[in-house]
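Ligand-bound model needed. manganese (II) ion.
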Amino acid sequence: MTIAAHIDGGLAVHPLAVRFGARIEGVDLSALDDDTLAAVEAALVQYKVLFFAGQRWTAAQQVAFARRLGDLHRHPVFDRHRDADELVVFAYDETRRGANDTWHSDVSFVAEPVKYSILHAEEIPPLGGDTLWLDAEAAYDGLSAFLKDFLGNLTSEHFFFKNPTPDALARLLAEGDADARTAAFGPVVHPLVRTHPVNGRRSLYVSRAFTTRIPELTPIESDHVLRLLFEHLDKPEFHLRWQWQADTVAIWDNRSTQHLAVSDYFPARRRVRRAAVLGERPR
Ligand code: OGA
Ligand code: MN
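Prediction:
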Protein backbone atom coordinates (compact mmCIF):
# COMPACT_ATOMS: atom_id res chain seq x y z
CA MET A 1 0.00 0.00 0.00
CA THR A 2 1.27 3.49 -0.74
CA ILE A 3 0.21 6.62 1.08
CA ALA A 4 -1.37 9.07 -1.34
CA ALA A 5 0.53 12.29 -1.84
CA HIS A 6 -1.19 15.29 -0.40
CA ILE A 7 -0.75 18.95 -1.04
CA ASP A 8 0.38 21.40 1.67
CA GLY A 9 0.71 24.97 0.45
CA GLY A 10 0.97 23.82 -3.16
CA LEU A 11 3.63 21.16 -2.46
CA ALA A 12 3.35 17.49 -3.40
CA VAL A 13 4.30 15.92 -0.05
CA HIS A 14 4.84 12.15 0.28
CA PRO A 15 5.20 11.15 3.95
CA LEU A 16 7.90 8.52 4.49
CA ALA A 17 7.04 7.19 7.92
CA VAL A 18 4.31 7.38 10.55
CA ARG A 19 5.79 10.22 12.56
CA PHE A 20 8.14 12.26 10.40
CA GLY A 21 10.02 12.62 7.11
CA ALA A 22 8.64 13.41 3.65
CA ARG A 23 9.68 13.39 0.02
CA ILE A 24 8.73 16.49 -1.98
CA GLU A 25 8.16 16.13 -5.71
CA GLY A 26 8.11 18.58 -8.56
CA VAL A 27 10.20 21.31 -6.94
CA ASP A 28 13.38 22.90 -8.32
CA LEU A 29 15.09 24.35 -5.25
CA SER A 30 17.25 26.66 -7.38
CA ALA A 31 14.15 28.46 -8.73
CA LEU A 32 11.66 28.76 -5.85
CA ASP A 33 9.38 31.76 -5.50
CA ASP A 34 8.94 33.21 -2.01
CA ASP A 35 5.55 31.58 -1.43
CA THR A 36 6.84 28.13 -2.31
CA LEU A 37 9.90 28.68 -0.12
CA ALA A 38 7.57 29.57 2.78
CA ALA A 39 5.59 26.37 2.09
CA VAL A 40 8.83 24.34 2.09
CA GLU A 41 9.87 25.87 5.43
CA ALA A 42 6.44 25.15 6.94
CA ALA A 43 6.63 21.56 5.68
CA LEU A 44 10.14 21.29 7.13
CA VAL A 45 8.97 22.24 10.63
CA GLN A 46 6.02 19.84 10.32
CA TYR A 47 7.84 16.83 8.76
CA LYS A 48 11.31 17.61 10.25
CA VAL A 49 13.28 16.17 7.32
CA LEU A 50 12.49 16.67 3.64
CA PHE A 51 14.03 15.06 0.54
CA PHE A 52 14.17 16.55 -2.95
CA ALA A 53 15.49 14.34 -5.78
CA GLY A 54 17.12 15.59 -8.98
CA GLN A 55 18.65 18.85 -7.71
CA ARG A 56 21.68 19.44 -9.94
CA TRP A 57 23.08 22.13 -7.70
CA THR A 58 26.45 23.85 -7.96
CA ALA A 59 28.05 24.76 -4.65
CA ALA A 60 27.12 28.41 -5.29
CA GLN A 61 23.45 27.50 -5.87
CA GLN A 62 23.41 25.52 -2.64
CA VAL A 63 24.81 28.50 -0.71
CA ALA A 64 22.37 30.91 -2.37
CA PHE A 65 19.42 28.70 -1.43
CA ALA A 66 20.63 28.24 2.16
CA ARG A 67 21.09 32.01 2.62
CA ARG A 68 17.39 32.53 1.89
CA LEU A 69 16.67 30.66 5.13
CA GLY A 70 19.13 32.58 7.36
CA ASP A 71 22.77 33.27 8.19
CA LEU A 72 25.16 30.40 7.61
CA HIS A 73 27.46 28.73 10.12
CA ARG A 74 31.14 28.40 9.17
CA HIS A 75 32.52 25.24 10.62
CA PRO A 76 35.72 25.83 12.62
CA VAL A 77 37.46 22.55 11.73
CA PHE A 78 35.66 20.44 9.13
CA ASP A 79 36.86 20.50 5.49
CA ARG A 80 35.30 23.33 3.48
CA HIS A 81 34.27 23.22 -0.18
CA ARG A 82 36.93 24.69 -2.47
CA ASP A 83 34.38 26.94 -4.25
CA ALA A 84 32.28 27.89 -1.22
CA ASP A 85 33.63 28.52 2.24
CA GLU A 86 30.16 28.17 3.78
CA LEU A 87 29.88 24.50 2.76
CA VAL A 88 31.33 21.64 4.75
CA VAL A 89 32.42 18.66 2.63
CA PHE A 90 32.30 15.12 3.98
CA ALA A 91 34.35 13.03 1.54
CA TYR A 92 35.38 9.45 2.29
CA ASP A 93 37.14 6.77 0.25
CA GLU A 94 39.73 4.02 0.59
CA THR A 95 42.02 6.42 2.48
CA ARG A 96 39.48 7.67 5.01
CA ARG A 97 36.68 5.75 6.70
CA GLY A 98 33.28 7.47 7.05
CA ALA A 99 32.58 9.58 10.14
CA ASN A 100 29.45 11.24 11.61
CA ASP A 101 28.22 7.82 12.65
CA THR A 102 27.04 8.84 16.13
CA TRP A 103 23.64 10.49 16.82
CA HIS A 104 23.84 14.29 16.90
CA SER A 105 22.01 17.53 16.24
CA ASP A 106 24.30 19.70 14.11
CA VAL A 107 26.53 22.22 15.93
CA SER A 108 24.65 21.95 19.25
CA PHE A 109 27.92 22.93 20.99
CA VAL A 110 27.47 26.71 20.39
CA ALA A 111 25.16 29.16 22.18
CA GLU A 112 22.88 29.65 19.14
CA PRO A 113 23.07 26.34 17.26
CA VAL A 114 22.21 25.53 13.68
CA LYS A 115 18.47 25.21 12.95
CA TYR A 116 18.51 23.81 9.40
CA SER A 117 21.05 21.64 7.60
CA ILE A 118 20.94 21.40 3.82
CA LEU A 119 22.85 18.44 2.43
CA HIS A 120 23.52 17.74 -1.25
CA ALA A 121 24.66 14.24 -2.24
CA GLU A 122 27.47 14.51 -4.80
CA GLU A 123 28.61 10.89 -4.94
CA ILE A 124 26.99 7.91 -3.25
CA PRO A 125 28.44 4.38 -3.01
CA PRO A 126 26.69 1.64 -5.02
CA LEU A 127 25.57 0.05 -1.74
CA GLY A 128 25.41 1.49 1.77
CA GLY A 129 26.07 5.01 3.01
CA ASP A 130 22.49 5.59 4.21
CA THR A 131 21.62 8.30 6.74
CA LEU A 132 19.36 7.81 9.77
CA TRP A 133 17.29 10.50 11.48
CA LEU A 134 15.47 10.34 14.77
CA ASP A 135 12.42 12.31 15.83
CA ALA A 136 13.36 13.94 19.15
CA GLU A 137 9.80 15.18 19.70
CA ALA A 138 8.37 11.66 19.39
CA ALA A 139 11.13 10.48 21.74
CA TYR A 140 10.15 13.10 24.33
CA ASP A 141 6.47 12.14 23.93
CA GLY A 142 7.44 8.51 24.55
CA LEU A 143 8.74 9.16 28.09
CA SER A 144 6.66 8.66 31.23
CA ALA A 145 5.04 11.73 32.78
CA PHE A 146 7.29 11.28 35.84
CA LEU A 147 10.50 11.39 33.83
CA LYS A 148 9.25 14.35 31.76
CA ASP A 149 8.66 16.30 34.99
CA PHE A 150 12.14 15.46 36.27
CA LEU A 151 13.92 16.29 33.00
CA GLY A 152 12.05 19.54 32.51
CA ASN A 153 14.11 21.24 35.23
CA LEU A 154 17.51 20.18 33.90
CA THR A 155 20.10 21.45 31.44
CA SER A 156 22.56 19.60 29.23
CA GLU A 157 26.15 20.52 28.44
CA HIS A 158 27.33 20.20 24.80
CA PHE A 159 30.97 20.15 23.67
CA PHE A 160 32.51 19.51 20.24
CA PHE A 161 35.43 17.63 21.81
CA LYS A 162 33.37 15.19 23.85
CA ASN A 163 35.35 12.38 22.19
CA PRO A 164 38.47 14.16 20.97
CA THR A 165 41.31 12.61 19.13
CA PRO A 166 44.13 13.65 21.48
CA ASP A 167 46.16 15.36 18.73
CA ALA A 168 43.29 17.47 17.48
CA LEU A 169 42.38 18.56 20.98
CA ALA A 170 45.92 19.42 21.96
CA ARG A 171 46.41 21.44 18.78
CA LEU A 172 43.16 23.36 19.10
CA LEU A 173 43.47 24.00 22.81
CA ALA A 174 46.86 25.57 22.18
CA GLU A 175 45.47 27.97 19.56
CA GLY A 176 43.76 31.35 19.92
CA ASP A 177 42.20 32.81 23.03
CA ALA A 178 40.04 30.81 25.41
CA ASP A 179 36.82 32.80 24.86
CA ALA A 180 36.96 32.42 21.08
CA ARG A 181 37.61 28.69 21.50
CA THR A 182 34.63 28.28 23.82
CA ALA A 183 32.42 30.27 21.43
CA ALA A 184 33.42 27.95 18.57
CA PHE A 185 33.47 24.55 20.29
CA GLY A 186 31.67 24.89 23.65
CA PRO A 187 31.15 23.69 26.26
CA VAL A 188 27.75 25.39 26.34
CA VAL A 189 24.69 24.67 28.46
CA HIS A 190 21.21 24.29 26.90
CA PRO A 191 17.83 23.18 28.26
CA LEU A 192 17.73 19.38 28.29
CA VAL A 193 14.14 19.55 27.02
CA ARG A 194 13.79 22.26 24.38
CA THR A 195 10.61 23.85 23.05
CA HIS A 196 10.33 24.39 19.31
CA PRO A 197 10.07 28.14 18.63
CA VAL A 198 7.55 27.66 15.80
CA ASN A 199 5.14 24.98 17.00
CA GLY A 200 5.80 24.90 20.77
CA ARG A 201 6.47 21.14 20.79
CA ARG A 202 8.99 19.75 23.27
CA SER A 203 11.90 17.52 22.37
CA LEU A 204 14.87 15.82 23.99
CA TYR A 205 18.05 17.82 23.43
CA VAL A 206 20.84 15.44 24.39
CA SER A 207 23.03 13.54 21.95
CA ARG A 208 25.65 10.84 22.19
CA ALA A 209 28.06 12.83 20.04
CA PHE A 210 28.06 16.15 21.90
CA THR A 211 26.29 15.96 25.30
CA THR A 212 28.86 15.63 28.07
CA ARG A 213 26.86 15.92 31.29
CA ILE A 214 23.83 17.20 33.17
CA PRO A 215 25.35 19.86 35.43
CA GLU A 216 22.58 19.74 38.08
CA LEU A 217 23.31 16.05 38.84
CA THR A 218 26.24 14.26 40.46
CA PRO A 219 28.62 12.66 37.94
CA ILE A 220 27.19 9.18 38.54
CA GLU A 221 23.61 10.42 38.28
CA SER A 222 24.44 12.38 35.14
CA ASP A 223 26.15 9.41 33.45
CA HIS A 224 23.24 7.10 34.16
CA VAL A 225 20.45 9.51 33.19
CA LEU A 226 22.25 10.32 29.94
CA ARG A 227 22.73 6.63 29.23
CA LEU A 228 19.02 6.06 29.85
CA LEU A 229 18.12 8.85 27.42
CA PHE A 230 20.59 7.68 24.74
CA GLU A 231 19.16 4.18 24.98
CA HIS A 232 15.62 5.56 24.75
CA LEU A 233 16.60 7.56 21.62
CA ASP A 234 17.93 4.32 20.08
CA LYS A 235 14.41 2.85 19.77
CA PRO A 236 13.71 2.16 16.07
CA GLU A 237 10.16 3.54 16.34
CA PHE A 238 11.68 7.05 16.46
CA HIS A 239 13.91 6.47 13.41
CA LEU A 240 13.88 6.96 9.67
CA ARG A 241 16.47 5.51 7.26
CA TRP A 242 17.21 7.13 3.90
CA GLN A 243 18.92 5.52 0.92
CA TRP A 244 20.57 8.21 -1.21
CA GLN A 245 20.92 8.87 -4.88
CA ALA A 246 23.31 11.49 -6.25
CA ASP A 247 21.77 14.97 -6.62
CA THR A 248 19.22 14.39 -3.86
CA VAL A 249 19.02 17.22 -1.33
CA ALA A 250 17.91 16.67 2.26
CA ILE A 251 16.89 19.53 4.52
CA TRP A 252 16.31 18.86 8.21
CA ASP A 253 15.32 20.73 11.35
CA ASN A 254 18.02 20.22 13.98
CA ARG A 255 15.70 21.62 16.67
CA SER A 256 13.53 18.50 16.58
CA THR A 257 15.76 15.75 15.14
CA GLN A 258 19.14 14.06 15.34
CA HIS A 259 20.91 12.11 12.61
CA LEU A 260 23.87 9.86 11.87
CA ALA A 261 25.67 8.59 8.78
CA VAL A 262 25.88 4.80 8.50
CA SER A 263 29.58 4.13 7.86
CA ASP A 264 29.28 0.70 6.20
CA TYR A 265 30.68 1.40 2.71
CA PHE A 266 34.46 1.51 3.20
CA PRO A 267 36.48 1.46 0.91
CA ALA A 268 33.89 2.88 -1.55
CA ARG A 269 33.65 6.63 -2.14
CA ARG A 270 30.98 8.86 -0.62
CA ARG A 271 30.96 12.63 -0.94
CA VAL A 272 28.31 15.08 0.32
CA ARG A 273 28.31 18.80 1.06
CA ARG A 274 26.34 20.63 3.71
CA ALA A 275 25.20 24.16 4.43
CA ALA A 276 24.10 24.95 7.99
CA VAL A 277 21.64 27.76 8.79
CA LEU A 278 22.06 29.38 12.19
CA GLY A 279 19.11 29.43 14.59
CA GLU A 280 18.10 30.84 17.94
CA ARG A 281 19.21 30.07 21.49
CA PRO A 282 17.38 26.89 22.59
CA ARG A 283 14.59 27.46 25.18
C1 OGA B 1 25.90 16.32 8.34
C2 OGA B 1 25.94 14.88 8.61
C3 OGA B 1 25.39 12.81 7.57
C4 OGA B 1 25.65 12.12 6.27
O1 OGA B 1 25.98 16.69 7.16
O2 OGA B 1 25.75 17.09 9.29
O3 OGA B 1 25.99 14.47 9.75
O4 OGA B 1 24.93 11.17 6.00
N1 OGA B 1 25.88 14.11 7.53
O5 OGA B 1 26.56 12.51 5.55
MN1 MN C 1 25.53 16.18 11.10
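The mean pLDDT is 94.
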